[in-house]
Amino acid sequence: MKSAVETLNPTRVRLTVEVPFEELKDSLDAAYKKINQQVTVKGFRKGKVPARVIDQRFGRGAVLEEAVNDALPKFYTDAVNEAELSVLGQPEVDITELKDGETLNFTAEVDIRPAIEIPDFSGIEVEVDAVEVTDEDVDKAVEELRERFASTSPVERAAEDGDVVTIDLEAKVDGEVLEDGVASDVSYTIGSGELLEGIDDAVKGLEAGGEATFTSELKGGSAAGKEAEVTVKVSQVAARELPELDDEFAQLASEFDTIEELRADSRKRLENMKQYDQATQAQERVLEKLLELVEVPVPEKLLEDEVNTRKHNLEHHQLGQMGLDLAKYLEIQGKSEEEFETETREAAVKGIKTQFVLDELVKQEKLNVNQEELTEHLMRRAASSGMSPTSSPRPSSRAARFRSWSARSPAARPWPSWSRRPRSRTPTARSSTSTTKRTRPSPPRPRPRRPPPRRRPRAEPRQR
């Protein structure tokens, strides 16, 4: 086999490959054997039809086509390896000549990873935010911990801000109850802003058994974006009670004996998180400076694939979980489709360039990841998503969550998809390629003190 490489542009090449016909022998034998197993010829047992009979009955062309399709991947791979190319994606193959008994010639155009020269980056300087933990930060962290240990108790009075109410919901559009517009035993904290707009005003002042109707725009489900008449019925009102911030709370919520020790530990954890954020900020800003110094051509086909993948991830994963479609999302963001396309393309270009530069740095600096670093990374990713490193993720589709709705206890049931407000954070079209952004670890929760193990009383010996 002979091959030659023609550079079409910095990110695309054309391979020209010439294969002597004798190198197709193994593929031809395999083609005859495969066709033999698929056809039936009178007078011959299955799988025992001679090659000449197959040529007469089905044509030599069918055998050659099968043999070439089988052999092309191997010859293409050999040509790529011989030229030491770093290819991206699938090639466009064109068979230019096929002479039975003589030769097979073909060309293959494919995108390649561009050659990049990394300049000296030791002189790059950037500014980052200082690490500072204030008393207010510590107070907020302790208060969040306190919120997690809040208890509720039913009360016989009208619902107020901060109360937890158990409610039934029914949504109607044009006077008709929606197929997915009924939900029972939904637990909601008044003032949290996590359900439909207008629900707080509707339930405040209602006692158990009270009912109210209000109008709101549905946030998801079969009638997303439409105005609906929503009826809410309160079945229970419960007041939230927060524990006192004292030594007893510290012993309940953590491994510490005093509230001062708990606050000191919270400060230390916050400092660690801010130091991590500072390191992440430094990494991102240094990388931005480096990208300004490096010329990185981007393969057009790879760019188109990346843009499409980012749009797919946004529309079918992030927005789907929020009960939004792309049009509604753009309306909320105040962007046109053209602006969205431009931003997505720019983000894709930056992502590809970043990956190319980082890959070249890894190669140039001969970097690798040991098992300890990999384990630490997985632990951080698991902590940031609230999962155990050994657990499997839950199904995230709305259909899966809705099917499991009725199997859960009333207090743990999720809200119907049409009632959830979009989260405050702005979703972005995420890349399918590996990302350079470091995962921020979530603050570890203080470990509750475990009671000492009980000792079983020693059994008295029986008297004989």
Overall shape: it is extended
- Average predicted confidence as pLDDT: 82
Task: Please tell me how large the radius of gyration is.
Answer: 33 Å
Q: Which class best fits the helix and strand makeup?
A: alpha+beta
**What count of structural domains?**
4
N-C termini distance: 95 Å
Estimated helix fraction: 40-55%
What order do the SSEs take from the amino end to the carboxyl end, as H and E? Answer: EEHHHEEHEEEHEEHHHHHHH
Number of separate helices: 12
Characterize the biggest β-sheet: 5 strands, antiparallel
Quaternary state reads single chain
Number of strands: 9
Q: List the uncertain runs.
A: 392-414, 434-464
- Estimate the strand proportion: 15-25%
Explain what this protein looks like in three dimensions.
The protein has 464 residues and is of the alpha+beta class. It has 4 domains: 2-112, 2-Layer Sandwich (Alpha-Beta Plaits); 121-150 and 251-295, no CATH class; 151-241, Chitinase A, domain 3 (Roll); 298-407 and 423-449, no CATH class. It contains 12 helices and 9 strands. The protein has helices at residues 25-38, 51-58, 60-83, 135-148, 199-203, 247-253, 259-293, 300-321, 326-333, 337-365, 371-384, 398-403, and strands at residues 2-9, 12-20, 87-99, 103-112, 151-154, 164-173, 176-189, 211-217, 227-241. The strands form 2 sheets. Strands 5, 6, 7, 8 and 9 form a 5-stranded antiparallel beta sheet that branches. Helix 6 (247-253) packs across helix 7 and helix 8 (300-321) packs across helix 10. It is extended. It starts with a strand and ends in a 61-residue tail after the last helix.
